[in-house]
Amino acid sequence: EVQLQASGGGLVQAGGSLRLSCAASGFTVSTTTMTWTRQAPGKGLEGIEGISGITSDGTTSYRDSVKGRFTISRDDAKNVLYLQMNNMKPEDTAVYYCNMGYHRGQGTLVTVSS
Questions:
Q1: What is the pLDDT of residues 82-108, one digit of tens each?
Q2: Calpha distance 36→24 (Å, rounded)
Q3: Is 45 helix (H, G, I), strand (E, B) or coil?
Q4: Which of 37, 46, 98, 113 lies 20 to 30 Å from 19 when distance is taken between CA atoms?
Q5: Residue 104: CB partners within 8 Å, gap ≥ 6?
């Protein structure tokens, strides 16, 4: 059974940093494409944004608004996906989710205060 559990969210001031983790089970993260998405408070499904992805060969991609600030990575030995977020902005406030295909784990709330 595929399971994804995101953690590491919290309250941070603008300019600060957080690192999100996504513990995966039921599959191997290094063999597939993994993504991070986010959904801002009060926004419905149309408000879900794809923000970063990493393929099985390690190719990464980022939404323009987070390029240069966010870094996606994975630890193959631990089967964990990460999202390092630096120089955070209030507009980064959202629930963050890790995804594998159509599987989405429970999100973790990130709040950035101005």
A1: 999 999 999 999 999 999 999 998 999
A2: 13
A3: helix
A4: 46
A5: 4, 37, 97, 98
